[in-house]
Automatic annotation (TrEMBL):
Pfam families cross-referenced by the UniProt entry: BPD_transp_1 (PF00528)
BP GO terms, sorted: transmembrane transport
Presence of keyword Membrane: yes
Localisation per UniProt entry: Cell membrane
Major site of localization recorded for this protein: membrane
Gene Ontology CC annotation, any one: plasma membrane
Membrane topology, from the record: Multi-pass membrane protein
Keywords: Cell membrane, Membrane, Transmembrane, Transmembrane helix, Transport
Transport recorded as keyword: yes
CDD domains membership: TM_PBP2
Name of this protein: Carbohydrate ABC transporter permease
Chain ranges passing through the membrane: 7-32, 68-92, 104-125, 137-159, 180-202, 238-259
């Protein structure tokens, strides 16, 4: 009975993995096909002949996809830096610094997670317009470059798990609050910081609605908007659209390969806690 249960579990997991990976496989296979192959063969047929024409056309064509990748990458990196710095400072204050109203302020701040992001689009748009930043690079960065409630919550819970004895020992050696944070807390929190790095980069790399609303034209177009524009610009040429989708996946896959150990470790540590 035990082996049948094990086989059943792996079959279910394999089926779920197949449904999850199928769209990515379809995207990659289509990206390296010609239009004739895509129209005349099964969507899961192997490219024959194998061609990189779609990749070249996407990167060098009028859609300026290469520029969109650079704009998205720079915006995501700046948002990541701002969110990590602000979230670490706020989370440490909520976790280890005693001040009046700490718990109330934390839960009020955390309650903003209940607000749907789409509700904030119009107020943010008006703010960017009145500040003269609409259709600029900073309109992509500034609304998200500060602490996020989710990051603060995750870091706070992790910081609370760090032994107080380590912090007390550092204070006995003359370390101030900033020294404790930089020299003790942050090095011990690398797994959770790596996890937040992945989550932040992926969420803002895939952001679509806000960049679509706040920017116009190709100058500050991001990857998601550039990919969507290809569908209308080339009359539904799916080989080009899938080539753009495949290119957009490459940085995320590389990021995951770099941080996979820390990501898995953070899940393991959270499970033990």
């Amino acid at each position: 009975m035990k082996w049948t249960r094990t086989v059943g579990v792996y079959l279910v997991l394999g089926l779920g993995a197949s449904f999850t990976l199928a769209p990515f496989l379809l995207s990659i296979l289509t990206a390296f096909k010609t239009r004739e192959q895509f129209a005349g063969q099964s969507v899961l047929a192997w490219p024959d002949p194998f061609t990189v024409e779609n990749i070249v056309r996407v990167l060098t064509g009028p859609a300026e996809f290469g520029r969109a990748v650079l704009v998205t990458l720079l915006a995501a990196v700046l948002i990541l830096i701002g969110q990590l710095v602000c979230s670490i400072l706020a989370a440490y204050a909520f976790a280890r610094v005693d001040f009046p109203g700490r718990q109330v302020l934390f839960w009020v701040y955390l309650s903003t997670l209940m607000i749907p992001p789409v509700v904030l689009i119009i107020p943010l748009y008006l703010m960017m317009t009145q500040a003269g930043l609409r259709n600029s690079f900073w309109s992509l960065v500034l609304p998200f470059a500060f602490a996020s409630p989710y990051a603060v919550f995750l870091l706070r819970e992790y910081f609370r798990g760090i032994p107080q004895e380590l912090i007390d020992a550092a204070r006995l050696d003359g370390a101030n609050t900033l020294d404790v944070l930089v020299e003790i807390v942050v090095p011990l929190s690398k797994p959770i910081i790596a996890t937040l790095t992945l989550i932040t980069i992926v969420s803002h790399w895939n952001s679509f609605m806000w960049p679509l609303v706040v920017t116009t034209g190709p100058q500050w177009r991001v990857v998601t908007v550039a990919t969507a524009s290809l569908q209308s610009q080339f009359n539904g040429n799916w080989t080009l659209v899938m080539a753009a989708t495949t290119l957009a996946l490459v940085p995320l896959l590389a990021l995951f390969l770099v941080f996979q150990r820390q990501f898995v470790r953070s899940i393991t540590i959270s499970g033990f806690k």
